[in-house]
Amino acid sequence: MTSALVVIPARLAATRLPNKPLADICGKPMIVRVLEQARNADIGPVIVACDHESIAEAVRDHGGEAIMTRVDHESGSDRIHEAACSVDPDGKHDVVLNLQGDVPLIAPEAIRAAFTPLSDPAVDIGTIMTEIRAEKFRNDPSFVKAVVTPIGSSVFRALYFTRATAPSGDGPLYQHIGVYAYRRTAMERFVTLAPSPLEIREKLEQLRALENGMRIDVSLIDTAPMDVNTPEDLERARAALEAQ
């Protein structure tokens, strides 16, 4: 396996937090904070795939690489695919890692954990999850559950993803975290597939891969990275960074 190409998709439009990628977090735009954590993961070059020149300028002002993508993509996967084909048309990197642009405090080891499952050539996509420890989140549909079976000490094979509380019975529940390491061939196939029935029903794009027979393995990490979607989230992120 060669190194991964890490792509961070960033859209300027956000209903709950306007201009979210440019939100200041202790002197730097949020997208730059994510870029720095991706670099610290040290699994390959990092680019930001954006839909507005202001995001590109912010990234370049801090020494990063940004590429403009179409504004009409229906999914983040399509934006990632366009960016990867643009910067690496020859497929030098056989893995493309999709890192969301709203996780400014994500640990580098969490990013690397999504990359780890691809050491098995049978795996198409690697991702991450963490155990849900707070009772109030077990039934929260915004906490996407990964239904998995263990194949190693901290690596699992995904059987399903759902907003429901699953599986039933005694035992842990796992929250899926949307960081994806696509084998390049898997990404090329994925973007050609039509939205699948369960994907549409659950509103979870990763189900398209499972419904089409693709294998997703999941690394278990200790804690979920804080994502920033609201002004209140932004204040928490600022306070957390200041406390470091």
Write a concise keyword list for the protein shown above:
alpha/beta; two-stranded antiparallel sheet; 11 strands; about 240 residues; 2 domains; 9-stranded mixed beta sheet; Spore Coat Polysaccharide Biosynthesis Protein SpsA, Chain A; 8 helices
* Top-tier CATH class of the largest domain: Alpha Beta
What strand order characterises the main sheet? 5-4-1-6-10-7-11-9-8
Which of globular, elongated, flat, extended, rod-shaped describes the shape?
globular
What order do the helices and strands follow? EEEHEHEHEHEEEEHHHEH
Q: Summarize the biggest pleated sheet.
A: 9 strands, mixed
Q: What is the strand tally?
A: 11
Q: Give average pLDDT, whole number.
A: 93
Helix content: 25-40%
Question: How does the SSE layout of this entry go?
Answer:
Blueprint: E1 4-10, E2 24-25, E3 28-29, H1 30-41, E4 46-50, H2 53-61, E5 65-68, H3 76-87, E6 95-98, H4 108-115, E7 125-131, E8 145-150, E9 155-162, E10 174-183, H5 184-190, H6 197-202, H7 206-211, E11 216-221, H8 231-243
Structure notes:
The chain is α/β, with parallel strands linked by helices and 244 residues long. It has 2 domains: 1-101, Spore Coat Polysaccharide Biosynthesis Protein SpsA, Chain A; 107-225, Spore Coat Polysaccharide Biosynthesis Protein SpsA, Chain A (Alpha-Beta Complex), CATH 3.90.550. Helices cover 30% and strands 25% of the residues. It has 8 helices and 11 strands. The protein has helices at residues 30-41, 53-61, 76-87, 108-115, 184-190, 197-202, 206-211, 231-243; strands at residues 4-10, 24-25, 28-29, 46-50, 65-68, 95-98, 125-131, 145-150, 155-162, 174-183, 216-221. The chain has a 9-stranded mixed β-sheet, sandwiched between helices. A two-stranded antiparallel ribbon has the order 2-3. A hairpin with a 4-residue loop joins strand 8 and strand 9. The chain is globular, with a radius of gyration of 17 Å. The model has no long low-confidence stretch (mean pLDDT 93).
